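Researcher: Please predict.
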Amino acid sequence: MRILKMFLLIILILFLLLICYFFAPLEIPFLTGLIGAPTQAEKITWGVNFSQKHTQSLGLDWQKTYLALLDDLKVKNLKIITQWDLIEPKQGQYFFDDLDWQIAQAENKGAKILLVIGLKTGRWPECHIPDWAKNLTKQEREERILKLIEKIVSNYQDSTSIISWQVENEPFFPFGECPEIDREFLQKEINLVKSLDNKQRRQIVVSDSGEGSFWFTVAKLGDVVGITMYKKVWFSQINAYVKYPLPPVFYWRKAQIIKNLFNKNVICIELQAEPWGKELLYTSPLEEQEKTMNLKQFKQNIAFAKKTGLDTFYLWGAEWWYWMKTKQNNSEIWQEASKLF
């Protein structure tokens, strides 16, 4: 019984130390690499995510929206989401016209692109599998994805605007209507990209949940760790809105661990800047959307991001800002976002 009590006491002490480490901004001079408090990066790179398909689902002209980001907001960093069903609508027939246009426009405006490729690339339902591929076996599907990646990378290997590739989106985080992506297959995808991109050798980003993971697995695979950062969301599990109680130091400390153990940089590839409600944006009432995103929340999220010490953020929601501006006659977030760029 005495040994059991001692064991439980040790477990409790370790748990409390862990809580303190990730939630309390303690300063220990000789351990600043792991225990220092975060300070705002001297120079922060701000970018936006863009999905042609998501923009169309909002009832917007995707080309006008894209140009507004480049010309009006003056965005210079874009994370462009590719989606399988748009690029290979029929088996073996590839359609690159729309993606060609996006990349050409970025090159003309001097913007840089992080291009997301693979099976799970973002925006609901996360995996955009074309109808012809929905009944393929796992092996057949993976073969087709590798062929898709080969086509995309080969097509844009000489592009001057693409500065890095993101292979899959949160591949190990169970979110979306997706088949499982195992580590072995992800490694095959990464190896393929590296073999095809042997001239420019651009960095490969592998992403994970900022809140629900310690990022170790993706750090072993990618050149850069990409994370999400959300502040207020709808949790269907408890049927309620939840504001994450995580302080900036939570992200900073995890990033320091990754830097020290793996010598990898951590960037935020999704900073919440749009609503996350009970329904998808396309059917959610405006008053419901404002429960998780409005001008005040937007400012708070930007201020929070600066306090994490990270130096690169791609905001998630630029298409929605344009929808608010053009469809709801409300440009306050659009104008606030313009200050970043």
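Model: The radius of gyration is 21 Å.
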